[in-house]
Amino acid sequence: MKNFEFKNPTKILFGKGQIEKIKSEIPADAKVLMLYGGGSIKKNGIYEQVNTALANHEVVEFGGIPANPEYAVLMKALKVIKEEKITYLLAVGGGSVIDGTKFLSAAALYKGDEPWDILTNNIPTLKGMPFGTVLTLPATGSEMNSGAVITRKETKEKLAMGGVGLFPVFSVLDPQVIRSIPHRQLANGIADAFTHVLEQYLTYPAEAYLQDRFAESILQTLIEVAPKLLEDPSDHAAASNFMWSCTMALNGLIQQGVPSDWAVHAMGHELTALYGIDHARTLAVIAPSHYKFNLESKKEKLAQYGERIWNITEGSTKEKAMAAIERTETFFNKLGIDTKLSQYTNDYNGTAELISKRFTERGWLGLGEHQNLKPKDVETIVKMAY
To answer: Phi and psi of 167, rounded to 5°?
Structure first.
């Protein structure tokens, strides 16, 4: 196991009725900007609960943050922050709203002229405007980590940012919100969290036995609750375990002391930027091809994954590894998620070359746990995913 330092300062308020507690988590004298997405929170009762909780606070609203938080929209919100002299942010939504809020937390205190530079120049945010979250769509784990991904339509880019200053002060996780989430979004959330774990688990053996078991327990839980959740989103036990699994998948815990990959995400982000495909679905497109391409370097962990998660006990290490990849693809398909790019667009010719070119232009010399995946390798993997 590698050396590591770990600190997660986010306070979690988990369970039924926790939204009302935000009134005591936000300073009484704060001027709050409440951020949300397309307005679904006004139909499922969450908006009313938040407003009731903040009845004694000064609150300004900004809605309309899209599924992939768009830079131009966020710049409008930043203008509101400046003009209204906002001192506290509250994200009420899923990963996109929370990621957008993280960008605003950083941009509100950024001294440069162009906030997009935070992403293009990989500037870590050491101190941001304080913010909390009320999670309405489990998937990304953004409610308990310090990372975010922002999209810019005009350049068709989707870039990551982060820093110790971007942990939420608190996050409310009420599993009751899940009963109003559409089937497609639930499937996306399961696939997203599942792939988050794979990115930190399917690398190479690092003698981190407990970390492996942590990761495997999340995968096993997601597999167990997925059919129950998709059949009945009001199943409180399934919803609770799903929500907590999504958070635990990317709050930093399972990544400590082990190598991690994230090449699947790097390629998937480009597919979202180019075609607008749901983030989770781009991961399901890229992951099988990525693991097949890197079979030799990942076969030990893939075989372990196959044995412990999918009960694959026969065959050589390589055969178990290949069978595990196939079972993973089948799992995504059972969620209703297609795993080939051609199932999402007919305009995919040249995509692999374009993504490879973008990685070259950004100076990305190597991806993956060994940092040895070159842009040409990325091109091959994306073509395998056609």
So the answer is: -75, 135
135 and 193 in contact (C-beta within 8 Å)? no
CATH superfamily of 182-384: Dehydroquinate synthase-like - alpha domain (1.20.1090.10)
The dihedral built from the CA positions of residue 223, 224, 227 and 233, taken in this order, carries a sign that is negative
State the fold for domain 11-176.
Rossmann fold (3.40.50)
pLDDT band at 39 (very low <50, low <70, confident <90, very high): confident
The average pLDDT across 146-168 equals: 96
Candidates 159, 280, 179; CA nearest to 228 is 179
H runs (alpha helix) in the chain: 22-25, 46-53, 71-84, 95-109, 117-120, 183-201, 209-231, 236-249, 263-275, 279-293, 295-310, 317-334, 351-361, 375-384
Rounded distance between C-alpha atoms, residue 11 and residue 28, angstroms: 18
Write the CA distances from 221 to 197, 228, 229, integer angstroms: 12, 11, 12
Q: Is residue 54 a contact partner of residue 22, using CB atoms and an 8 Å limit?
A: yes
The Cα 44–Cα 300 span in angstroms is 46
* Span 148-158, pLDDT tens digits: 999 999 999 99
- The strand pair at 131-137 and 147-152 is best described as unpaired
